Amino acid sequence: MDYIQHKTILLTGASKGIGRATALALAAHRVKLGLVARSEQDLITLKQEVEALGSDCEIFTGDVADESTAVKAVAKMQDRFGSIDVLINNAGYGNSKPFEQFSVQEWDDLYATNVKGTFLFSKAVTPAMKQQQSGHILIIASDVAKRTFATGALYCSSKFAQHAFGDAIRKELRPHKVKVSTVYSGLVDSYFHAEPQGDAAHKWWLKNEDMARSIVFIINQPAHVVIDEFMIHPLEQDY
Fold first, then answer.
1. Separation in Å, CA 100 to CA 79, 144, 149, 153
2. Of 44, 137, 188, 226, which residue is the least packed, with the fewest Cβ within 10 Å?
3. Domains of the chain, residue spans
4. Per-residue pLDDT of the chain (239 residues; tens, 9 = 90+)
5. Whole-angstrom Cα distance, residue 231 to residue 147?
6. GO molecular function terms here (predicted)?
7. Does residue 191 carry a catalytic annotation?
């Protein structure tokens, strides 16, 4: 059964990596898709690909840490399509080095994207989801939300924050029949790492398409089913 078809889905961090792969995977289900990222040209190109697959698409260029980006994107999607059924909080990045070497600005910038962006977009979609008594909020976190590594204090703590935020709003929104799912991924071959995407060192890592299939699976469940947490790793990665 295809429970995704015709749903309205808003996706942040859509222009590359996991976000781009997810947009294309969703487009094959003939959805109504809203794509958010900083790169307008990348979004324009992706919009063309999405529409070629048979899905409607709106694009929004902006910073997820700017409340106006979230408010405008949600308002436009609601105005055009009537509702937002799914929000995928995918925008994020990481940084790794000894914690005392981080500047205050680096700390603030990463938390703004990874944590504040998740908060702002979730806040923007929640009133309508509560009113319609349905909806689904996904948070793309990381397995480091449940473990840590040396030189990862900034990134790990931001993902711990996403994990806690998702847990808390899941309890708040469940009585309103709004689902909240958090995805914890291991190593993914994407632009995210020091080596370029496709580097030989990433040969056995998860691919962006693996993550996209997992995200589609989580969304594509009947109304009475929620996948609260989803942990995924490449087989070669010890956890």
1. 46, 20, 15, 10
2. 44
3. 8-232
4. 899 999 999 999 999 999 999 999 999 999 999 999 999 999 999 999 999 999 999 999 999 999 999 999 999 999 999 999 999 999 999 999 999 999 999 999 999 999 999 999 999 999 999 999 999 999 999 999 999 999 999 999 999 999 999 999 999 999 999 999 999 999 999 877 777 888 888 999 999 999 999 999 999 999 999 999 999 999 999 88
5. 12
6. oxidoreductase activity
7. no
> Is domain 8-232 classified as CATH 3.60.10.10?
no
* Nearest alpha-carbon partner for 220 in 29, 57, 27, 78: 29
Catalytic residue among 3, 93, 111, 155: 155
The helix-helix angle for 17-27 and 208-219 (nearest 10°) equals 50
What phi, psi does 141 have (nearest 5°)?
-100, -130
Residue 121, CA distances (Å) to 34, 84, 164, 174, 180 in order: 12, 12, 16, 18, 13
